[in-house]
């Protein structure tokens, strides 16, 4: 039995290593061609920078390549054992399918732990370093700091969110703008605007925002400071509502190196960074609950239909945290479903195994894409949808493995 176990382990590691290299190379080429090809054509990228970028992307693509490699290895190995009647001979000798699968399942658990470490720490660090490397060649624009669905908090005392942006020659056109201004920790102004224009002065690191067709809520200042303080502490704030054809806050002066210090995207953050971001966004969500548009339905009638949907800053972060956790255990889920499918396929052909693997990967990623698409729909719990393929594959794989073992 020891000889059989070592044989299965060697074969699994050999096939997995080969398929991981193939998948990783394909993913690396896709990422590099997407972001570096234009710079290569312009002659801005040296071979040294290209090599460094290649190495920094390796952990990022390994998170995706390892589960696919594990799945393909199970399908090919057990498909070949079944096709050559080796599996039948082993079972006739009293060796159960579960016993044969045990070392492979242990390998998948160890691979899942490796993926968890890479996914929550190593890959985000390398991806952030890769982005910094790209910025050294192509800095980009200050206006890139404001992205759809992401609260911009780089400006002290102000938070800006938008739903859509379109690049123009003289700046960036914005749609569905939500602007909050603070005095200390207290929100004192809230503005909803149908559209606007964002311009930048790269020399002075300033952003100029002009909003059009605005609905403004401003904290009343007619009372004395003592009354105002008492009102704030009691939660009985008085807000004024108004309309404006156009409104432009004071120019936003940013740190000179703000583009290099900007937060990475959520899917590029480590688990520690995501937890910090989650705490910040929960505080923002609490602040938004104190704003008039959240509490007073009669005030929300002043807004356009496109503005009636409140912005949820917390759920996208929750989705990314659960994505890292759930996707780390994809190796184990793919192994559980891959072993019985490999036995049932009765094929030696590599193309068949790879074809089945690609179908299963597509199904798995469909849930990930669905969860990301629903990340602004908190009531649908998109962070839990991410766990569905793991649950589906593990339950289905366990049932199929048990039935094959007792057949």
Q: What's the gist of this structure?
A:
The protein has helices spanning 2-41, 47-83, 86-92, 97-137, 225-234, 258-261, 271-289, 292-295, 297-300, 315-328, 330-345, 350-373, 382-385, 388-405; strands at residues 158-161, 164-168, 171-183, 186-201, 206-219, 239-247, 252-253.
Characteristics of this structure?
407 residues; alpha+beta; 2 domains; 7-stranded antiparallel sheet; 14 helices; 15% strand; elongated
Spans of at least 5 consecutive residues whose pLDDT stays below 50 are: 222-236
The Cα radius of gyration reads: 27 Å
Tell me roughly what share of residues is in helical segments. Answer: 55-70%
Number of H- or I-type helical stretches: 14
**Total number of distinct structural domains:** 2
Helix/sheet category: alpha+beta
The description of the largest β-sheet is:
7 strands, antiparallel
Amino-to-carboxy terminus distance: 22 Å
Shape: elongated
| Proportion in β-strands | 15-25%
Mean pLDDT figure: 79
**Helix-strand pattern:** HHHHEEEEEHEEHHHHHHHHH
Number of strands: 7
């Amino acid at each position: 039995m020891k000889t059989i176990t070592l044989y299965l382990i060697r074969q699994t590691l050999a096939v997995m290593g080969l398929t991981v290299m193939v998948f990783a190379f394909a993913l690396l080429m896709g990422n590099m061609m997407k972001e570096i090809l234009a710079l290569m054509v312009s002659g801005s990228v040296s071979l040294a920078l290209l090599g460094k970028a290649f190495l920094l992307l390796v952990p990022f693509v390994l998170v995706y390549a390892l589960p696919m490699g594990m799945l393909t290895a199970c399908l090919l190995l057990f498909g070949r054992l079944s096709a050559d009647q080796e599996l039948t001979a082993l079972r006739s000798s009293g060796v159960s399918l579960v016993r044969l699968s045990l070392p492979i399942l242990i390998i998948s658990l160890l691979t899942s732990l490796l993926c968890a470490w890479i996914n929550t720490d190593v890959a985000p660090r390398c991806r952030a370093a890769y982005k910094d490397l790209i910025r050294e060649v192509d800095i980009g624009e200050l206006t890139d700091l404001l992205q759809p669905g992401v609260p911009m908090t780089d400006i002290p005392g102000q938070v800006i969110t938008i739903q859509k942006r379109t690049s123009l020659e003289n700046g960036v056109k914005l749609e569905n703008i939500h602007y909050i201004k603070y005095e200390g920790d207290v929100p004192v102004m809230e503005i909803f605007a149908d559209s606007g224009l964002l311009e930048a002065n790269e020399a002075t690191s300033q952003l100029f925002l002009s909003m059009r067709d605005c609905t403004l809520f401003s904290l009343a200042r007619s009372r004395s400071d003592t009354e105002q303080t008492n009102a704030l502490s009691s939660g009985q704030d008085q807000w004024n509502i108004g309309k404006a054809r156009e409104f432009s806050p004071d120019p936003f002066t940013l740190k000179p190196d703000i583009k290099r210090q900007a937060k990475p995207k959520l899917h590029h953050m480590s688990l520690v960074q995501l937890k910090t971001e989650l705490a910040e966004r929960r505080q923002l969500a609490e602040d938004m609950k104190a704003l008039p548009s959240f509490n007073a339905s009669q005030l929300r009638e002043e807004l356009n239909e496109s503005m009636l949907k409140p912005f949820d800053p917390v759920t996208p972060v929750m989705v990314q945290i659960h994505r890292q956790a759930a996707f780390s255990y994809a190796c184990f889920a793919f192994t559980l479903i891959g072993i019985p499918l490999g036995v049932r396929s009765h094929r030696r052909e590599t193309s068949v195994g790879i074809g089945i693997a690609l179908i299963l990967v597509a199904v798995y990623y469909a849930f990930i894409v669905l969860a990301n698409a629903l990340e602004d729909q908190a009531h649908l719990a998109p962070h839990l949808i991410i766990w569905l393929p793991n649950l589906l594959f593990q339950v289905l794989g366990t049932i199929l493995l048990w039935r094959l073992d007792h057949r």
